[in-house]
From TrEMBL:
Species this protein is from: Streptomyces badius
PANTHER family: GLUTATHIONE S-TRANSFERASE KAPPA, ISOMERASE
Keyword annotations from UniProtKB, A to Z: Isomerase
GO molecular function: isomerase activity
Name of the protein this chain belongs to: 2-hydroxychromene-2-carboxylate isomerase
Domain DSBA-like thioredoxin: 7-195
């Protein structure tokens, strides 16, 4: 049986294009005829102590009017520039993601974070907000709060950031399909082709490196 094609997607919860990428990614994977394994990876666009963006400044409203809202309309996604100011740091939310992933709810957690920020105007930098959202997807509140308070998943989050740096991720979303790299919201046809190309390469390379030993085993 062929190994699944692995897709890694680096994203940040304060990046609207990462939320907008969900639909094209789902469309590309649907009925592609190849087993696909998707892993969402953390990336902090603005890590502490670098200042985060403010919606009342010129940049955010301009980029939303020029690029975010037009794409959202094309994709049929309800999304609004949050009023949270300054925008939250996301390190703590990503530590929460590591807790959720360990409990089998990583994908649900990611989706909930995007919708809480871009559709409900919630501040993802607040522990109480994160805890309420975690409970809403079925996570244990006490366990979640303790993990954040104790920094249980801080090292794991930092390791994920080091992996992003090793892959030279500079913007999000960035997708790695096998060893095929796509930066920005992917077109479904583009991503589907990358999946099929990655699967073909895996099939071609299968068996290379295999050998038999002098004891007769292979």
């Amino acid at each position: 049986m062929a190994d699944p094609v692995k897709i890694k997607i680096w994203s940040d919860y304060v990046c609207p294009f990462c939320m907008l990428a969900e639909g094209p990614i789902e469309e590309a994977i649907k009925d592609v005829g190849v087993e696909v394994e998707v892993e969402w990876m953390p990336f902090e666009l603005r890590a502490h102590p670098q200042p985060t963006l403010r919606p009342e400044d010129e940049y955010l409203p301009a980029i939303w009017e020029r690029a975010v809202y037009p794409m959202a309309r094309r994709l049929g996604v309800d999304i609004t520039l949050p009023t949270v100011s300054p925008q939250p740091y996301t390190a703590l939310a990503f530590e929460g993601y590591q807790y959720a992933a360990e409990h089998g709810l990583g994908d649900a957690y990611n989706q909930r974070m995007f919708r809480a920020f871009f559709q409900e105007d919630q501040d993802l930098g607040e522990v109480d907000v994160l805890a309420a959202l975690a409970v809403g997807i079925g996570l244990d509140e006490a366990g979640f709060r303790a993990a954040l308070a104790d920094g249980t998943y801080r090292a794991r989050h930092q390791e994920a950031l080091r992996e992003a740096a090793a892959h030279q991720v500079r913007s999000v979303p960035t997708l790695l399909v096998g060893d095929i790299r796509i930066e920005g919201v992917p077109r479904p046809a583009q991503l589907r082709k990358a999946i099929l190309d990655a699967q073909a390469r895996q099939a071609e390379e299968a068996g290379y490196g295999a050998a038999c030993g002098i004891d007769g085993t292979c």
